[in-house]
Amino acid sequence: MFSLYTDAATQPQTGLSAGGILIIHDHQQTQLKQLLTTTNNHAAEFEIARLGFLKLAALVGPACATTTVLFYTDSQIVNDSLTKHYAKHYQSLVDDLLAAQAPFQLVLTQWVPEKQNQGAHTLANQALHSAEDAK
């Protein structure tokens, strides 16, 4: 079983977005930071979640078909959209995220408050600050 935590950070003034991915398996952590292409926080949350599943699939390889993933997000819209398989303004992003989850045997999505998602949150903010410093 793998635990996957994702979070996005967006700076509205600059339009920059970044995300953090935290993968935990057998008490081992994989921490990833990623600059994102989206410029609003909701879209960034979907983008980093999709990227998290793609990174996890690359890490797990063919064993995805027998792997259970506990997915944690502090984004209410991502959580609700995955439950309904629908989001009025973000349907293509929901579809992309569901496709990224498809290789796994089972994905259990859990909304968590931001304070319980500090690992991914910190990684997202670090990536965002690095991108802002580079501008």
Low-confidence runs:
none
Main sheet: strands, sense, barrel: 5 strands, mixed
Beginning-to-end CA distance, first to last residue: 39 Å
Strand % is 25-35%
Please report the number of helical segments. Answer: 4
Q: What is the class in the CATH system? A: Alpha Beta
What structural category characterises the helix and strand content?
alpha/beta
Q: What is the averaged pLDDT score?
A: 95
Give a count of the beta strands, DSSP E runs of length 2 or more: 5
Describe this structure in words.
With 135 residues, the chain is an alpha/beta fold. It has a single domain, classed as Nucleotidyltransferase, domain 5, CATH 3.30.420.10. 42% of the residues lie in helices and 30% in strands. The protein has helices spanning 41-60, 76-84, 91-101, 118-134; strands spanning 2-11, 16-25, 28-36, 68-73, 106-111. Strands 3-2-1-4-5 form a 5-stranded mixed β-sheet. The termini are far apart. Residues 1-133 form the RNase H type-1 domain. This is Ribonuclease HI family protein. InterPro entries: RNaseH-like_sf, RNaseH_domain, RNaseH_sf.
